[in-house]
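User: I'm curious whether this sequence folds into something compact or stays loose and floppy. Could you predict its structure so I can see for myself?
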Amino acid sequence: MRVVPLRLTSGDDLRLELEAWMGRQQELAGCLISGIGSLSVARLRLAGRQEITTLTGDLEILSLAGTLSPDGAHLHIAVADNAGAVIGGHLCAGSLVRTTAELVVGLLPQWRFSRELDPGTGWAELQIQPAPDSNDHRERR
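Assistant: Here's the prediction. I'll summarize afterward.
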């Protein structure tokens, strides 16, 4: 695994910046190891819902986790407002960094992640394969 620290700044779209960054990497699979910072706008899709919930204000990123592939990301985030109330869900585009986002990304050169529509879920779900030039033939789960 290659570990890369990243810092996003005020006004950056957290999801779109991560997806764009991953698209510029040679590796075809990645994961968020750590993510903290703050947002001024958080756009989340909550469990079991289709619509997006938008929060605004001073929001602390408590946790950010997920997978990255050249064709998209699956990211979950937990944020707290200035009263300490916590909410979490799928991170959507339009979530804007307030002051900073400090991220640590793991890139997985032996693997290829992609997203394909799963008829059972109705969502583009993670597909895991060995990287095209990988000699690592470990069993996939």
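Summary: The chain has one domain: 2-130. The first strand starts at residue 2 and ends at 9.
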